[in-house]
Every structure is written in structure tokens, then in C-alpha cells.
Amino acid sequence: MRILYYDCFAGISGDMNLGAMIDLGVDPLFLTEELQKLNIDGFHLEISKDSRRGISGTKATVVIENPDNEKHRHLHHIEELISQSSLSDRVKTNALKIFYLIAEAEAKVHRIDIQRVHFHEVGALDSIADIVGAAICLDYLNVDKVISSPIQLGGGMVKCAHGIMPVPAPATAEIVQHVPVKTGLVQHEATTPTGAAILVALVDEFTDQVNLPIQKIAYGIGQRDISDVPNVLRVYLLESKMELDNTSSEEAMMVECTIDDMNPEWYEFLIQKLFDAGASDVYLTPVVMKKSRPANKLSVLCSRRLLPEIKATIFNHSTSIGLREYSVAKTVLQREEKEIETELGKVRVKVSYYEGKEIHAKPESEDLRKLASQHGLTLNEVEKIIAKSIYNSKYIRKNGFS
Fold first, then answer.
1. 236-246 in b/e burial notation, b at 16+ Cβ within 10 A?
2. Checking DSSP bridges between strand 232-239 and strand 2-7, what pairing results, if any?
3. Which has the closest alpha carbon to 114: 70, 165, 79, 163?
4. Into which CATH architecture does domain 248-322 fall?
5. 176, 196 in Cβ contact below 8 A?
6. Which of 194, 220, 262, 285 could make an S-S bridge to 233, C-beta 3.0–4.6 Å?
7. pLDDT digits (tens), the chain, 402 positions
């Protein structure tokens, strides 16, 4: 298992993140070529070696070539820019996730609709490069999990587009509202809104307890050099070669409630909204409540950082007036998606591994439905044909299909 660990002892900004990722091994030429897929001109990356308080690392600077002509953008401009690019789907999804976090925070602070948010620093070219670059770098590293320490926010006051603000700036405070933070190490803005959104969008778990061997250490150098605390972002690449069972364990949250007074036709919509909010699993269990009333127990599995959104979704889209929540241990098999050719067409297959062997190979049900419609076959007929193709596929070992 490969894990990217952010040690944010001195905070994080977009350019510090790019520098750390390059220092960790991301090819700067690859990053530059991928950023060109946005099809916007007017900026370029400058990469150099630098140091802060004796700590050496990589400094990445997005240079704006003509600042006077730079445009500021709204969220729909950003969506179009990313969606119409030739970047991979994973990069697009992660980049938009970061932008949405910032837009939601700004919209809440200014009490306006999210589409009316006028991106100032964030809509500028350097922040676009920082955010899309973060998604590109994560895709390049191809890690299994991202973990971060509590985020150092800093202290004092900061000058931004709306004037002088306390640290953390209001947008930053909104973004980090439900993750562990620290304050006061330095009297300046240690974590920018962009840096905070990168972490909250991409990190799977926040903890300062790391028990895996460190394979590589890297440093991203910040633009600031005015305090005794080195303005650097430290990242680790952790890799455990001891997990031979191809499983990973992580903390998850279970949220439950019992509902006996809701229109059953609402459940499908509620479940879809919960999955849209990021739930890992959602299911209903028939139960009998007091006075022998039939009811359903709603169970939702999610990460801790998604807990506020999951709870809000349940309260807004069901008749529940109370929830139970508790921590559970979650063990997950290593999985990957492969595409195979069959006599009916291409099919995506999810493959799971345990103890070094492929033990499950499951075709995507959506692909099965499409092929059934295209060829005028039943799902049962399509499934039998695809199962034979999976068994014979050169991509999946015969002892791996079940």
C-alpha cells in the first residue's frame, strides 16, 4: 500500500503543494504538458531548488506573463475550462471538487448563490494552475490513500481581496471547519484557502499517528521567509510491504435512524442523495418499533469528514428527527478497474485481490444493461457471455474469477 502523507507543521499553500509533489517525484515536464491541456495561455511554471532555515526542497512558482490583462472568473467559467479540456476524468473530478469547496465557502461567507461567487485570487491563473496541478500530481503518484496531519493555520491578520481579515481568513475557516487544525505557530497566514481546499478535498484521513515505514521525504518551499519557522510543506511517501493480504483498514462512521412515517416512494431519492454526498454504503433494514409499528432502519456508512453533509442530507430529505452515529473499523480489499474486449463489446470489470490473488471479477452492471439493450438480449444471457470472456481474458487469471 502506497500512502501520501502531508505533514502540515507550517501550513500549506497551492505553490508549496506543487513544489512538494515535484520534490517527491512528479515529473515537472509531465505536469507542464498536462496543464497545457487547459488550453489557456498567459502563465508558465518556474521550478527551482531553494531552502528555508537550512531545509532544502523544491520551489514551484506559477508566473503570470501579463498580470494587467488577467481575467477573474466565476464558477461556471472554471467548470467549462476543466470539463472541455482533455485531462483525465479523475483529474477533472478532483480539480472540480477543490474548486467547489472554495466556491461553497465563499458563497456562505458572503451569503450569495454559489454561481454568483466572483473568484478573485482563486479565479486567477496562478490559483487555477495550483488547483488543477494538485489533481494532476495526485493522479501521477497513483497512491492508495492520502493522509494529513492537523493543519497549521497561523495567526495575525491577512490582506485579501475584501480587505484586512483575521487568520484564518473566513473562507479558509469554512473549508477546514470539520477537520483537525492548529493555530498560532506564526503570525501570518500559514494555510491559504487553496491549500486548505486541496487537503480537505483529497485527504482520506487526518491524523498525526503514522505507523508505516517512510520510503521518501520531500519538501515544498514557500514564497515567504520572514520567521524562524521554516516556510515549507513536508510530505512523506509511505509504503507497507507487509500487507500481503491486499487489504486496508480505516476508520469509518455509521449513521443510523429508524423511520416509520415517510412515504416509501421517497427512499430511492434519499438513497441517491446520500450516495451523491459521498456515502460509501446505504441500506434499509425492516424493523418493528414500539406499538408494533413497521418501520425501516436507514444505515449510512461514510468517512468522518463527510459526517456533517451526510447528517444534513438525512434531515433535509427524510422525516427523521434524530440520528445515531458511531465509529466502525472498515477493512477493504485492494481493487482496480480493467476494461476487456468481449464478443458483445467492451466491458469494465472490477477486480479484487486477497493474499496476492485475484479473487473476484465483477462486470459493471451499467455496461451489462447497455449491451443487453444493444443486442436485444436478456441480462442473464449477457452475463453468461461476459463471464466466459472474463474467464478467458488475458488480463484476468483464470483462478481469479468467481
1. bbbbeeeeeeb
2. antiparallel
3. 79
4. 2-Layer Sandwich (3.30)
5. yes
6. 220
7. 789 999 999 999 999 999 999 999 999 999 999 999 999 988 999 999 999 999 999 999 999 888 777 677 888 889 999 999 999 988 999 999 999 999 999 899 888 888 887 665 444 788 899 999 999 999 999 998 899 999 999 999 988 777 888 999 999 999 999 899 999 999 999 999 999 999 999 998 898 888 788 999 999 999 988 889 999 999 999 986 544 455 666 778 999 999 999 999 999 999 999 999 889 999 999 999 888 899 999 999 998 888 888 999 999 999 999 999 998 888 877 777 777 888 888 888 888 887 767 777 888 888 888 888 988 989 898 888 888 777 666 444 444 443
Distance separating alpha carbons of residues 274 and 313, to the nearest angstrom:
7
For residues 261 and 263, what is the distance between their CA atoms, to the nearest angstrom? 7
Instruction: Give the single-character DSSP code of 323.
Output: -
Strand order in the sheet with 214-221: 43-52, 55-64, 214-221, 232-239, 2-7, 145-148, 205-206
- The pTM of this model reads 0.66
* In contact, 21 and 226? CB cutoff 8 Å: no
Q: What is the DSSP string of 351-386?
A: EEEETTEEEEEEE-HHHHHHHHHHHT--HHHHHHHH
Phi and psi at residue 35, to the nearest 5° = -65, -30
Long-range CB contact pairs, 63-66, < 8 A, 24+: 64/124, 64/125, 64/126, 65/41, 66/42
Q: What is the signed CA dihedral for 109, 168, 136, 129, rounded to 10 degrees?
A: 80
Angle at 64 between CA 4 and CA 194, to 5 degrees: 35
Domain ranges of the chain: 2-239, 248-322, 334-400
Element (H, E) at 125: helix 125-141
Tell me if 198 sits within 8 A of 17, measured CB to CB: yes
Tell the residue number behind the cell numbers 441517491, with chain if given.
272
Cell of 15: 505553490
* Residue listed under C-alpha cell 502563465: 43
Q: Are strands 357-363 and 345-354 parallel, antiparallel or unpaired?
A: antiparallel
The dihedral formed by the CA atoms of 110, 115, 120 and 124, expressed in degrees to the nearest 10: 160
| Cα–Cα dist 31/105, whole Å | 28
Do the beta carbons of residue 27 and residue 37 sit within 8 Å?
no
